[in-house]
Specification:
The protein has 6 helices and no strands. By secondary structure, the chain is an all-alpha fold. The relative contact order is 0.17.
Length: 110
């Protein structure tokens, strides 16, 4: 964010909100871009054949391991499912690359 402020010649002393600077520069929020990158990787993995190493690792189940104390870990698959539910898309859409990319694309504020 400091780089965007520097590009606009503003400092924190100017008291300009981050959202206003992002709109001025035309940059999308970081969390949306991170969601896009994860879903783009998911689409890549889904289009691979079932015998590809990355797809075989997807079906591995850890048996006999104990879960540690505290909050359970958030797994990659759970995050992807939440992101797909948030964007109202399904796993079947990943097979069509062009449709998948257009549905997960995050555009800046321009």
């Amino acid at each position: 964010m400091w780089m965007l402020r520097w590009m606009c010649r503003h400092t924190r002393i100017d008291k300009i909100r981050n959202e206003d600077i992002r709109k001025k520069v035309g940059v999308a929020p970081v969390d949306d871009k991170m969601r896009e990158v994860g879903l783009r990787w998911f689409g890549h993995v889904q289009r691979r054949s079932l015998d590809a190493p990355v797809r075989r690792c997807e079906q591995l189940a850890m048996v006999g391991t104990r879960r540690g104390r505290g909050r359970p870990k958030k797994y990659w698959g759970e995050v992807i499912r939440q992101d797909m539910a948030w964007l109202h898309i399904s796993e079947n859409m990943a097979l069509d690359r062009k449709a998948w990319r257009s549905s997960i694309r995050v555009v800046g504020y321009r």
